[in-house]
């Protein structure tokens, strides 16, 4: 898809990511952690300050939820993503402002049922943020399975050459516009050289 898009309209990471993840709004940012941060900010700013999250996330994401958002008053409940009954019960009990999972978790490689978790989240009115870094859109496209936002560390497989830091947030165009405003305000813009 990258070569195909490049041929047609020049190298544009936004368009390439849109094509790869299935045609929604895309925001590039300075790192994967910035993508996680912006997605959480956008989800929580006007929603309950509670998160239900997978219990085996990337270490820095768990750390961000606990020590950064936690210190700011956001309560996070970590639940086994492979135990759907427990996950559903936690979402029903805590009525979160956001649900966060990794489609394939790094580094423990737990695979969650994104479609089922999307249905549980939608039922509770909570946006589902899926970190799709490990799966890549080649293996899984969470937006097609009902996720509200997909995030990527482009530092990993997407860039592929161990030479660039970057991240992406994808979602509905209106949501991505909202995240763009946050990015303009808090920083974390992708370096044009990257
Ligand atoms: C590496 C990674 C991140 C963070 O990405 P950086 O670009 O290093 O900030 C986030 N989520 C997952 C699943 C990762 O593997």
Describe the structure.
With 194 residues, the chain is an alpha/beta fold. Helix content is 44%, strand content 18%. A seven-stranded mixed β-sheet has the order 1-7-6-5-4-2-3, with helices on both faces. Strand 2, helix 4 (59-69) and strand 3 form a beta-alpha-beta unit. Helix 3 packs across helix 9 (173-186) and helix 5 runs parallel beside helix 6. The protein binds pyridoxal-5'-phosphate.
Characteristics of this structure?
about 190 residues; alpha/beta; seven-stranded mixed β-sheet; about 45% helix; binds pyridoxal-5'-phosphate
The small-molecule ligands in this entry are: pyridoxal-5'-phosphate
Number of helices: 9
- Oligomeric composition of the shown chains: single chain
What ranges have pLDDT less than 50 throughout 5 or more consecutive residues? none
| Beginning-to-end CA distance, first to last residue | 20 Å
Shape: globular
- Secondary-structure class: alpha/beta
Taking the sheet with the most strands, its summary is: 7 strands, mixed
Output the strand order for the largest sheet.
Answer: 1-7-6-5-4-2-3
Approximately what portion of the residues adopt beta-strand conformation?
A: 15-25%
| Secondary-structure element pattern, one letter each | HHEHEHEHEHEHEHEH
Number of strands: 7
Q: What share of residues is helical?
A: 40-55%
Please compute the radius of gyration using only Cα atoms.
16 Å
Mean pLDDT: 92
């Amino acid at each position: 898809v990258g070569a195909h898009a490049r041929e047609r309209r020049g190298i544009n990471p936004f368009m390439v990511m849109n094509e790869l993840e299935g045609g929604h709004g895309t925001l590039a940012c300075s790192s994967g952690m910035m993508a996680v941060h912006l997605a959480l900010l956008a989800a929580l700013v006007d929603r309950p300050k509670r998160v239900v999250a997978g219990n085996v996330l990337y270490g820095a994401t768990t750390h961000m939820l606990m020590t950064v958002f936690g210190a700011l008053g956001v309560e996070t409940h970590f639940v086994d993503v492979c135990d759907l009954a427990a996950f559903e019960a936690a979402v029903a009990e805590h009525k979160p402002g956001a649900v966060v999972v990794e489609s394939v978790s790094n580094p423990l490689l737990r695979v969650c049922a994104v479609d089922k978790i999307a249905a549980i989240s939608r039922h509770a009115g909570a946006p589902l943020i899926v970190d799709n870094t490990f799966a890549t859109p080649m293996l899984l496209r969470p937006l097609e399975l009902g996720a509200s936002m997909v995030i990527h560390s482009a530092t990993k497989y997407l860039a592929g050459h161990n030479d660039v830091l970057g991240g992406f947030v994808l979602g509905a165009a209106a949501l991505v516009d909202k995240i763009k405003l946050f990015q303009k305000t808090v920083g974390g813009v992708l370096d044009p050289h990257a």
